[in-house]
Amino acid sequence: MNWLDALKLAEKDQEKFIARGKKIVKRFRDERGTEGTQASSEDKRYNILWSNVRTQFPAIYSKKPRAQVERRYKDADPVGRTASEILERALQYEIDHYSDFDAALRCSILDRLLPGRGVAWVRFDAGDQITDDVTEEGEDEAAEKTPEPGEQLSADDLFGGQYAKPAPAMPGAMDPSAGMPAPGAQPPGLLGAPAPMPGASGAPMGATPELLALMGMPEAPKKPNTAGYECAPSDYVFWEDFRCSPARTWEEVTWVARRVYMGRKEGGKRFGVEKFNGVPLTHEPIGLDKDVTQPDDAKKAKIWEIWDKTECKVIWQAEGVADPLDTKDDPLELDGFFPCPKPLFATTTTDTLIPVPDYAEYQDQANELDELTGRIGMLVKAVKAVGVFDASQPAIARLMQEGTDNTLIPVENWGSFSTAGGLKGTVDMLPLDAVVNSLNELYKAREACKQVIFEVTGLSDIIRGASMASETATAQQIKSNFASLRLKETTQDVARFASDILSMKAQIMSSLYRKETLLEMSGILQTDDKQYAEQAIDLLRNDTMRNYRIEVAADSMVELDEQAEKNSRMEFLQAVGGFLKEAVAAGQTQPELLPLLGEMLMFAVRSFKAGRPMEAAYEAFIQKMSQPQQPKPSPEAQKLQAQQAQAQADAQLEVKVEQMRGQERMAVEKYRTDSQHDLEAFRAKLAADAADRDANYARELEQLRAQIEDLKSMRQASTQIAVAELKNGGTITPEQDMAADAAALSPRAGI
Length: 751
What we know:
Layout lengths: L2 H11 L1 H14 L19 H13 L6 E5 L6 H20 L2 H14 L3 E6 L32 H6 L13 E2 L4 E2 L27 H6 L19 E4 L4 E3 L10 E8 L1 H8 L1 H4 L24 E8 L4 E6 L7 E4 L14 E2 L1 E3 L2 E5 L1 H4 L1 H20 L4 E3 L5 H8 L11 H6 L3 H4 E3 L3 H25 L3 H4 L8 H40 L2 H8 L10 H9 L1 H7 E5 L7 H28 L4 H14 L7 H11 L9 H93 L6 H12 L6
Antiparallel strand pairs: 1-16, 2-5, 2-11, 3-4, 6-7, 7-8, 8-9, 9-10, 12-13, 14-15
Helix pairs in contact: 4-17, 4-18, 4-19, 11-15, 21-22, 22-23, 24-25
């Protein structure tokens, strides 16, 4: 197929749509006249388009959606539940961690509300660790190299065909003046698309068998990437840069294409310097002087990335070059082949995919509104205090010009002034009654025109935040419901668009992400379902089983009421709590009902979104409670068992009593023996003490006897001395007698 002719045919098919879309965007931005100048009274406008879009946008999309991955069938499938949890957490991680998904949705929705078509593109990015071999002159020495067997290639090498490291850029960087990617903001990444950030390199599968053979790897349809960094970015596609085959419905489309812009250096890295040198650089950023020759660095080549569903090929075609720059087999193997979901279309019919913008449906009323606003501006300018006065009374001019308070202005020739009727006779003001009446009628007409526009667009007073105090709550509710019905189709289409993007990201994750990446992103190993992690990964790798057992969707993207979320959780707790109360009582009386009650409980838990985190805990509890119970014995058997138990208890009691008695006897005997030993020891001690006392008494007695004998001997000696002295004629006084006794006793004083 000649892709240049196909692209020209598609451009011809969309020529009127693009021209009208540019006018609508210009009207939305209110670009008129010279920049910075004030519009004249007759050129005043009422930008109802800006107001409507700014009102509809938050009603359609006001927050990031939450990924919702569920089992297709709400049955007892722990592996399917774990796989759903892994995929949901991985998707939510990328939604929260990277801004590309939210930015792509916001830009696509704005394009849907203005020109009438919003497009997003999904790709796989495995990073890049290949060194940049580009020389200073810009020659890529690695472009013509053939990889050796076993050599590690990045995703850029497999799907881009070159050894080159793209320059880092933020995802979705755009040139606001041109509405196109800014120079340098789209370095070539996977499939020639911009990489959102630099990362590690790896070898994702999905490549051609020839490249797999060169890498020394066995041929496989989808083998997970072995790199450290993996991501599935969502790129916004500018509404003028999208083409598709002419068709009546999206299902009939056979190819889609998006336009990217590359400089000479970027294109040389991506497609090879020699091949890209022949590509003309036809795109120049808006604002450059056309009369001055611009350097090549400021110019870009227009490259079309085409996905042909019929041939399952991806083609890169440059404008101005006959042959394609590159062609690859399907690298992602998505279910619908196309890397973009069905675009967000405005009004379409079954005969063409070219949408009709919403503004086109009420542009006549918008023009009427602008005309009324212009007339109002002119009349407002005409409403002013002007008139004529008697030239012979110049003081009257001072009265109007000076306008001072509490001041009297002198008048010459007061007599003639008062004769002429005073101020009434000398001043005549321009009548404004007709102008004011016309102005009031124009205000009413403008309000009526606005109401017609609101009826056409479906923007009720409730959505616009306006209401009358006299309206009842029922009337306001009817308006709110009416507005919700009119916006429901658009809201559902945006939810479908976001769900399709998430579904494509989920397929890329399941097929190309490493097992370690999925486990780390999901944190499933820290949950109660970690035992099913390996089986869950195997389920995700199996395309058929994954599609049968798992479905991916996006949660509501409209700002939810926190109280409503709390009410939902309380409703779940009340419902499950009430059921458990009844189920426990029934299970105690009839244990055979436990399996049925468990299934009924899980039927209720799976129907509540708030119960999903606790589903594993409930299943473990039910499994434990549903284990087979011992059959209940008959009354006779129970009586016999009771008697046997009583006899056994009596025997055990008798044995215990006998043991206690024996222990008591042993204790008494031991006490008696110990007491006898203590008594004998005490007696021996008493005998020893008595013997010691007797010996001491005997010694003391002997000492006394010896003293007495000494006293006797001394007394006899003193008596003899006294007798001798008496015989010699002397006398002995009592004092001498006592002194003699004391002298006799002095040698014994120490006894």
